[in-house]
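Q: Entry one of two.
A:
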Amino acid sequence: MSAPLRPIRGRDRFLVFGAPAIGEEEIAEVVDTLRSGWLGTGPRVARFEEEFRRYKGADHAVAVGSCTAALHLSMLAAGLGSGDEVIVPALTFAATANAVLHAGATPVLADVDAASFNLDPEDLARKIGPRTRAVVPVHFAGRPCAMEPILDLVARNGLTLVEDCAHAIETTWRGRAAGTLGEFGCFSFYPTKNLTTGEGGMVLTPSADLAARVKQLALHGLSRDAWKRFSDEGYKHYYVTELGFKANLTDLAAAIGLHQLARLEQNAARRLEIWRRYERELADLPLSLPAPEEPETRHAHHLFTVLVDEERAGLSRDRFLERMTEQGIGVGVHYLALPEHPYYRERLGWKPEDTPVATSIGRRTVSLPLSAKLTDEDVADVVAAVRAVLGG
C-alpha cells in the first residue's frame, strides 16, 4: 500500500481538468445577448458560423447543439441508414459510434496506431467490406490522422468521409484544414475544448445542398424560412418537410464562441508553451509521452496524454488517477476503448481483444491538464504532483 502523500494543492485550490479560459469579452457579449431579447438561434449564430467558416477556409458551416448532433446529422444528410456500415476507430468517445447507431447504420471498429493513437490505415483497409459506406477518422488529441492512405481508400471504394474534429479546431494536414478534407467535418465546443460555447458544435461541408439539409434536420425538419420566422424581416410561415430533430445552436452560446474564436490563436500559443514544458519536465519519468508532431502538419494540442506502464511506474493507471486527485490535480482518461463498454459488447459483440492497440492504450492513458487558463504556478503544480506520485 502506497504511503499517503502531502497534497500539492488543497481542496480549496483543486485544479479542475479542462476548465476553459473565459474572458470579460465573452461575459459582456452574453449580457448584451440577454439584453437584446434574442436568446435562440439568431444573428450571433449566423455571425459565428460565418467567422468559423472563414477561419477554417470552408465553403459552408452550420452551427448545431453539439458535436454528437453534428455527427448524427451528417450521417443522415449523407443518406446513411439501415444495412450500411460505417468504420470508426476503437479509441474515441462514445459519440462517434453512437451517431452511427442513431442514424440506423452499423459501426465497424478499426484499431489505432500505437504512436499517434489515430485510425490505423492498414486495419481500416482490412475492415472495408461490401456494406461499407463511410469512414469517420478521429483526429485524436488534435493530431491529424494519416490522411493520404485514408483519402486513397475512401476514393477507391466510393465512401463518404465524415471527419470527427472534436479535438482538432486548429489542426491542419499538408496545409489543409481538418474538417475540410471530406464531405463533412464535425466540431465540438464542449467546455473542455480549445474553443467553447458551453455546449455546441459545427458542421463544415463543401456542398450547399448538404449544408441546407443539415440545417433543416437540426430544426425539426422545418423549411428554411423557419430559421427567420421571428426576424426583423417579418414573420415567415414554415412547413414541416421531414422528420427532424432539435439540435440548433443558440445566440447565448454563440456569444461565447465569437470571442473564443477571436482568441483562438493566442490560446493555442499558450497551450503549446505548456505542452513543451511538460515534455521537458516529465521526460525522465517512467511514462510514455506524446509522439512528436509529424512533418507538414499542425497539432491542435488539445490533450496531453501520457501512458502509465505499471511495471515501469510501480503503480497502475487507475492508482495514478487516484493519487493525482489526492494531490489536488484533476486528470482525464481519453479513452477506454469502445469494446470495454458493456453496451457495445452486448449489442454489437465487440471484444477488447479485437482491437488490441486501442485496448492497451485505453487501459494506460491519462490526460494531464492543458488549458490556456493554466498559470505557470498551475503547471508547476501538475509537474510536482506527477513527480510525487511516481516518486521522481
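Q: Entry two of two.
A:
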Amino acid sequence: MSDQKAQNPNPIEIAREKLRTVENVLNSIVVGHEDFIKALMLATISGEHLVVVGPPGTAKSYAVRAYAQLLNARFYSYLLTKFTSYDELFGTVDVTALAKGEFKRNWSRIVTSDFVFLDEIFKANSAILNALLSLLQERVIYDPMSGQAMPAQLWTAVGASNETPEDPELIALYDRFAVKVFIDYLNDDAALLRAIQARWLSVQTPKAIASMDDVKALNNFALSIFKGKIKDLGEVWKIYHINVVPMMKKLREKGALVSDRSIIEKLPKLFAAYLAFYGVTIDNVMNAPYDLMLYLARSRDELREIKKAIDEMLGEIAELAKKLEKGKELLRSGNIQGAKSAILDILNYEVAKLEKTPWLKPRVEAILASARQYLETIKQIEEQIARLAQY
C-alpha cells in the first residue's frame, strides 16, 4: 500500500508541500515579517487581494517580487502618484493604428501578470482609482477612451501604503482588499542580525520552487473543503458559521466595521484557504477564525481593539490554551510530573460553563482533546519508567 502511495502521490499534498517550502524560504529572505508572509500566502491561495500598510523600507515590494519569483509567476509593479496617468499604468494608445482610424491600446503587463504590486496605491488620482476598482473586483480593465473591457489575468493584487486612507473616495478601493496587514521596522536585535545575514550572506535571487498551478490546485481544494464535510465535525460552512458569526457580532458591538461582504464572501474563502494550506485538523479549524479576524482591521487602532476583543471573548479559554502550552513545554523538558499536573488541571475544566458562549465550545473541546492525547503519552512514559525500574 505504501509503495502504491509513493507511485501515486496526492497532488494536493505535493502542492501544499511546495507552497509551505515557499513560505519557509520567503521567511528566510524577508526576516521578521512572518505575519505579512502568512497573510500573503493565504490571500494568494484564496485568490483574494492584500494591502500592506507600513513605513518605507520595510521590504514590502521586495517580499512580493521574491514571492513571484519563487512561484515563477508573471509580475508587474508600479509606484503610483497623483500625477500618474492612465496611459502610464495601463498602456499607451497605438498611434499608428489611430492614424488609420482604429483605436487600439498597447496594454502594459498589468493585464497579463499573475501578481500586481501597486506601491503608494492610495495616492492615485480618480481615473486610476476607478480603473483599479474594476480590476480588483472583476479582473477587467475598462478603457476610458473606447469603453472596451480588457480581461486581466490578475490572480492577486498587493497594494502598499505608508498610511491608512482617510479620504472617503479611497474607502471603496480599500475595502476591495480582503486582507489588511500592518507592519513596522524591525526592533529586535536577533531579527536584525538574521536580516543582515539574509541580505549579505545568502542568494539574493530566489529560484522558482513552485508554480501558479500549485496555487490553483490548493485554491480548488479550498473551495471543495468549504462545500464538504470534516469527519466528526460536520459540514464546513456550518462550522464556519458557528465559529465566526458570533465573534463578528461581538466585534461589531465593539465598534469594528465588519461588513456583510467580509462575513459572507471574503472570510469563507480565507477560512477554507487556511485549512487547505495548514491542514484540515481540529486545531486549525478552531484557530483559523482568530487568526483571520486580524485581517479585518482597517487601522492600527482597530487592530488593537480586535486583539483586545478576542482576548475578552476567549477569557478563561485563552488561559486554558496557555496551560496546554505550558504542559507541552514541561513534557519536552522532561518534567513528567509537572506536565501531568498541568494537563490534569486542563481536563478538570467544566464545559458546562460555556452555556452562554456556545461558539467557544468547539475550541475548548479541541484543547481538551489535545490534552487527553498528551495525558496518554505521559501515561505511556510512566509505564516505560516503571518497567525499567523493575530491572
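A: Comment on entry two: The mean pLDDT is 88. The two ends are 40 Å apart (CA to CA).
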